[in-house]
Write a structure and sequence with these properties.
alpha/beta; Aspartate Aminotransferase, domain 1; Aspartate Aminotransferase, domain 2; 3-stranded antiparallel beta sheet; 15 helices; 41% helix; 16% strand; globular; Aminotransferase_I/II_large; pyridoxal phosphate binding; PyrdxlP-dep_Trfase
């Protein structure tokens, strides 16, 4: 008797096509726009399609304007010329050089820590820290609802891979966090909150978090992607009322932010550093940070002066951070707002779900030390004259135009 025909397999192509069509209908489909940076000026680009247009960028995280600084560029170029571009292996095999070690020591001093580990990305840094700590028996993770995706995914992986319990508390709602902490019988509790939130520009309540940490015997590693070299004494970031360095840890995915380079790092105690090297899978199994990026970050660290930070805050015009969200509500409204600014000569892309919660699409304006005072004034005029602020106000009143 002939065998029955095999059951029809679901069509992957049909699923992909349907998902892409649905994303396009919801105005959530993303695409890449090739930009040509202006040589020597990180804040200017040429957008080539549909026709060449020169734009001033108010969207990147190059807070101190160091990515195109001549000394940073020269350091990266010299490292590439002398040692090549690729690190050849993971840090634990043969990718960790004396230049990596020198930068790690300088970063540890900046963070008042015993040790520092470098990572190829900030995403890997957060995943490694959370994954390593979650191997502790009875670990429970308490994460802010608006944490960066690298923290969110790191916590999810830690919960799935190591069996840690995962609790999400409402954004900056310490009363909700306290209820969750009090209800948990976990012997080891880990509170995770960005110090400065990347899409809203608001800051965590450092003193309140530290108080909850002490009250519940928790560990509090504050990721400082958008704070190091921008906030704090000597650019050390927003300090969270740290205890003596026993297991206190600072994770920073920002060699690609104010440093104007690439990569991330974790500054911590010596025992925790040893744990990361042994159990931080995202670092163990990643290729090391390339030497040109190490050289660029090292040069940037020397250039991150108090004067440059003062210039950044002068450009911020009294705002709470260099990140200024302009929430307009719908995806369509955000795309229209971005298009209006582009017609006025400014590059400020729309930020849409899942990067931000549904109904809170926005423009994320970022000022840097590299911007001229007149450029900030011109942007303010464009926001008003283009009608972008009217879109924001209509959304605030619940009268969305789109």
């Amino acid at each position: 008797m002939p065998s029955p025909p095999p059951a029809a397999e679901p069509s992957w192509a049909a699923w992909v096509d349907g998902t892409v069509s649905a994303l396009a209908e919801q105005r959530l489909l993303r695409s890449l726009r090739p930009l040509t940076p202006d040589p020597g000026c990180s804040r200017r680009v040429v957008l080539s399609a549909p026709s060449p247009q020169r734009l001033t960028v108010f969207a990147d995280n190059d807070y101190l304007g160091l990515s195109s600084h001549p000394e940073v560029r020269a350091a990266a170029a010299a490292a590439a010329a002398e040692h090549g571009c690729g690190p050849r292996s993971s840090a634990l095999v043969c990718g960790h050089t004396e230049w990596h070690e020198s930068l790690a020591r300088r970063l540890a001093r900046l963070k008042h820590a015993d040790a520092c580990e470098l990572f190829p990305t900030g995403f890997a840094a957060n995943a490694a820290v959370l994954g390593a700590l979650a191997t502790s028996p009875g670990c429970a993770i308490f994460s802010d609802a608006l944490n960066h995706a690298s923290i969110v995914d790191g916590a999810r992986l830690a919960a799935k891979g190591a069996g840690a319990a995962l609790h999400i508390y409402r954004h900056n709602d310490l009363a909700h966090l306290e209820r969750l902490l009090s209800a948990s019988a976990a012997p080891r509790k880990l509170i995770v909150s960005d110090s400065v939130f990347s899409m809203d520009g608001d800051a965590a309540d450092a003193a309140g978090l530290a108080a909850l940490r002490d009250r519940h015997g928790a560990l509090l590693p504050p990721p400082q992607a958008h704070a190091t070299l921008v906030y704090g004494e000597g650019g050390g970031g927003r300090r969270v009322h740290a205890r003596p360095m026993t297991l206190a840890v600072v994770t920073c995915r920002l060699l690609s932010k104010a440093f104007g380079a690439h990569g991330g790092f974790v500054a911590c105690s010596s025992p925790l550093h040893q744990l990361l090297l042994s159990r931080g899978r995202a670092g163990i199994y990643s290729t090391a940070l390339p030497l040109p990026a190490v050289a660029a970050a090292d040069a940037a660290l020397a250039l991150a002066t108090p004067q440059r930070r003062a210039q950044l805050w002068a450009r911020a015009c009294g705002w709470r951070s260099p990140i200024v969200p302009i929430e307009v509500g719908s995806e369509a409204a955000a795309l229209e707002a971005a298009a209006r600014l582009q017609r006025s000569g400014f590059f400020v892309p729309a930020i849409r779900p899942p990067t931000v919660p549904e109904g809170t699409s926005r423009l994320r304006v970022v000022v840097t030390a590299g911007h001229e005072e007149e450029e900030v004034a011109e942007l303010a005029r464009a926001l008003s004259e283009s009608g972008v602020l009217r879109l924001r106000d209509a959304h605030a009143r619940g009268e969305g135009e789109y």
